[in-house]
Design goal:
With 177 residues, this protein is mostly helical. It has a domain at 68-169. 63% of the residues lie in helices and 0% in strands. It is built from 4 helices and no strands. The protein has helices spanning 35-59, 68-94, 101-132, 140-167. Helix 2 packs parallel to helix 4 and helix 3 (101-132) packs antiparallel against helix 4. The longest helix is centred in the middle third of the chain and has 32 residues, at 101-132. This is DUF3180 domain-containing protein.
Amino acid sequence: MTTSSSPTPPDGRDGPGDAGVGGEPDGARLGPVSPAALTAFVVVGLVGGWLLRRLGRSLGFAVPPVSWTQVLLLVLVAAILAGTAWFTRRTVERARADLLAHQAVNRLVLARACALVGALLVGGYVGHAVSWLGSASYVADERLTRSLVAAAAAGAVLAASLLLERACRVPAEPPAP
């Protein structure tokens, strides 16, 4: 018989360190990034990208251009994330012991952060492109095209991040005989 100095919570467990469902500590499982969070980040980016040009013009600032360097950097990040996802999936399928727990968690956190930032950038670049629609400026077509290409590259970052997040999933072990 064990005694506890703290009262038992209403859920019947003894405390925050007790094992939850499946023998894992409470809070030990991270779910995938929710579609609602990704959608919220896209919407915030969309509004921010659209407002950037409007506010810049009203305050007398120059509108920041989208450079090809930004696009290439996003493509590079997407390629690195996709490669990491591929290597992670191979490692998990081949021998789970080769991927240490802290490495899997680090990759999962990286994937989640990059997915949210990728969603924000997709929205931001699309919003920036939308702000150039109907503009009579001589640079409008160039800025619209570059913004849409950058949005596609940011979409590649988002997709590669979601692939990495999925690659970090470890299949359930079969029950012991």
